[in-house]
From TrEMBL:
<dbReference type="InterPro" id="IPR037175">
    <property type="entry name" value="KFase_sf"/>
</dbReference>
<dbReference type="InterPro" id="IPR007325">
    <property type="entry name" value="KFase/CYL"/>
</dbReference>
<dbReference type="Pfam" id="PF04199">
    <property type="entry name" value="Cyclase"/>
</dbReference>
<protein>
    <submittedName>
        <fullName>Kynurenine formamidase</fullName>
    </submittedName>
</protein>
Amino acid sequence: MTTPAEHPAGLDRNNPEAEIVARAEAYRNWGRWGADDVLGTLNFIDAAKRKQAAALVTEGTVLSLTQPFDMNGPQKGWRRRTNPVHTMLDTGTDAERGSQGFPHGIGGADDVIAMPLQCSTQWDGLGHIFDHGFAWNGRRAGDVVTSEGDLVTGIEHAAASGVSRGVLLDLGRFLRPDTGELDDGYAITADDLNACISAQGATSVVGTGDMLLVRTGQLTRARRTGWGDYAGGPAPGLSLTTAGWIHRSEIAAIATDTWGFEVRPNEFDVPAFQPLHQVAIPNIGLTIGELWDLDALAEACIERGRFEFLLVASPLAITGAVGSPINPVAVF
């Protein structure tokens, strides 16, 4: 079997079907962790990896990597994805007026939030994307996700898996030191990833069980110029041709500061939509994070001269969900 091209110049830009199939077959992890597996590449995180990650904590500094969850977010209603709607059920005004019905002067506040699970900082679960009707590990998509949710690989199974060594690759600063921001539509290649690792140094070397964070700088730009098409429009991101690099590196998960993780528009001259998702989630079994805020983390890494840290990024145990909002934290 011919090895799929690992640079965008080698893509047949008129045949996304063939390019996707070639990578799905070359890098498929079905059966690697058994027929009943529900974690995919999160299996690469073991006790030794967590101990290694914990040893990186030397000062106790914690940075949150989440974007806000509020009505001022970037969502524009694509596929009914909206920004969170936050509603108060009980307020201080109610307490002052004594209308809550509690004894001896006690009062309180309660609230509720309604939102798509992938409207802000989040993980894509293994039931989020299918390939030709098949879900992760070769299961039929209709047997996995029904109107009752993801009955097999629901995000709740990963609730204890989001703790590992985190590594930041600041591609924005490495490739565009003048601005720190990659242009929309820039396709990050395997060569780019390797060159960034070399430039950043030994603490950037990516290995089995690591959770890789890729900063493009697009969020930085959106904060300065406005959301625009940040949610779903053109963006820098990983090239489809990085699928082999991802597979060989044995990373447990990857996250970016963009809406869709991979480069947009996608790398074809005919209709295509998120081809790297189609390879990575149902075939490689990769957990993907999007809409992460990596700006403060990048500054912290530069200040310390190291790009590795303890990363705690567990999903909510929402039964049957195909994704989850998170508040990932990096600990130095």
